Each structure stands twice: as C-alpha cells, then as structure tokens.
C-alpha cells in the first residue's frame, strides 16, 4: 500500500513539474512588464512594484466589434501582454475574434499556447490538423455557447458558416502565445524562401510560387 501511494505521489509530482515547467511560475505576486527596461530576460523585466497601478491589470473595449472589412472578413482584438502589462509571467491571455459572413481566420498555429475558443454569437466551422505522420483533420461546426480546444502548436482555423456575423472569445495559455500564419510564413518571409525549395515541397511550378510570394 505504501509503495502504491509513493508511486501515485511521484506521478503527480512529475505531472505537476511538467505542467509548471512550460511557463515558469511567478516568484512574486506579479511582475508588471516594463517595456523601457534594457534587461534581457525570458519575457519582460518587472516594473518597480511601487509604480504599479490598476490600469496595468485592465483593458477596455472588448465589447466593441472588430473591423471585418478586409480580404479575410475577420478581425482579432488581442488582450495580450502588449495590452495588459500585468499579464507578464502569468501565462494567460485572451482575444475577441469577429467574423463577417463567411469570414475566415486562416490556418495558423500558436507556438507557445493552447487555445480554448467559445462561440458567443453565430456558427463557426473550426478544426486543427494533427502532426505527422497522420496529418488528421479534426473538425466540428460550433453553435452559440459551444467550446473547442486547439492544442498547442497545431495548425488550426475558424470560418463563419452562419447566416450573419459571428464572434468568439479565445483564452490562451501564454501571455505571449505567438502566431504563425501558414501562408504568410511560407510565402511572405523576409528574405523569401528560395522558389525552388517551395516549388519542390508543394510539387508545383516555380511560377506558381512566384505568384503567391507576390501577394505578400
């Protein structure tokens, strides 16, 4: 019995350490980001706690719809470290996402965060693709009030498939989740990825790659 308790305790301890080690736990009550500091750390240096105010922990305007008058028909209103300096070291952030009819959040990934999305209005087709070798598409149509999780690092997308506008709220497990838009990353990098590499990877003619690169 004692051995069993020891094994369970060890498993819990290891599991906790793995989870906690992804983003270091704060060593103080808070570490409000100081963007003026020249210190190089994993994140941003802490503002002097005596200078901290309530507005370092707040953001206004999440009730305001984003402007979806663009080619994708979508808008993201982030509430990340740049908007709330008090998120520094806390390992959490959120965003409002608005969708015009048939609006799209194109395939992308977050290298540092899992995302959990809640539909507050409308109807969304969402999905993510598992890693090699399966490359399996996991997809679902979400209605108002539905929740969906995008695992960390996996390519995912959202599309409005309802009759009107839609919006959702996403929470992410990092104060700085990062975003890699698949198309922008491959065809809009600086400097550009050589044409012959992309042409061979996608098994298309170089002229196709050049046309895609010209759009970014």
Describe this structure in words.
About 20% of the residues lie in helices and about 25% in strands. With about 220 residues, the protein is of the alpha+beta class.
What is the overall pLDDT average? 89
Quickly give the structural class. Answer: alpha+beta
Strand runs, count: 10
Q: How many helix segments?
A: 4
Strand content: 25-35%
Span of the ends, CA to CA:
63 Å
In brief:
With 216 residues, this protein is α+β, with helices and mostly antiparallel strands. The chain has helices spanning 2-22, 182-187, 195-202, 206-214; strands spanning 74-79, 93-99, 104-109, 115-121, 124-129, 137-142, 147-150, 156-160, 166-172, 180-181.
Which features would summarize this protein structure in a list?
five-stranded antiparallel beta sheet, alpha+beta, single chain, 216 residues, 4 helices
List the helices and strands and how they pair.
Elements: H1 2-22, E1 74-79, E2 93-99, E3 104-109, E4 115-121, E5 124-129, E6 137-142, E7 147-150, E8 156-160, E9 166-172, E10 180-181, H2 182-187, H3 195-202, H4 206-214
Helix pairs in contact: 3-4
């Amino acid at each position: 019995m004692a051995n069993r308790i020891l094994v369970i305790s060890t498993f819990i301890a290891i599991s906790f350490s793995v989870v906690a080690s992804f983003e270091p736990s704060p060593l103080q009550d808070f570490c409000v980001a100081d963007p003026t500091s020249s210190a190089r750390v994993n994140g941003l240096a802490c503002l002097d706690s005596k200078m901290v105010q309530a507005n370092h922990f707040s953001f206004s305007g999440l009730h305001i719809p984003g402007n979806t008058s663009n080619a994708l028909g979508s808008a993201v209103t982030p509430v990340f470290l740049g908007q709330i300096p008090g998120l520094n070291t806390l390992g959490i952030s959120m965003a409002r996402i608005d969708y015009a009819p048939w609006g799209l959040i194109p395939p992308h990934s977050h290298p540092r965060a899992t995302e959990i999305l809640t539909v507050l209005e409308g109807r969304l087709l969402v999905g993510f693709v598992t890693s090699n070798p399966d490359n399996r598409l996991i997809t679902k149509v979400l209605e108002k009030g539905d929740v969906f999780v995008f695992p960390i690092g996996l390519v995912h997308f959202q599309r409005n498939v309802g009759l009107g506008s839609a919006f959702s709220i996403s929470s992410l497990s990092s104060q700085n989740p990062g975003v890699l838009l698949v198309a922008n990353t491959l065809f809009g990098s600086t400097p550009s990825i050589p044409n012959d590499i992309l042409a061979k990877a996608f098994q298309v003619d170089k002229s196709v790659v050049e046309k895609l690169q010209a759009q970014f």
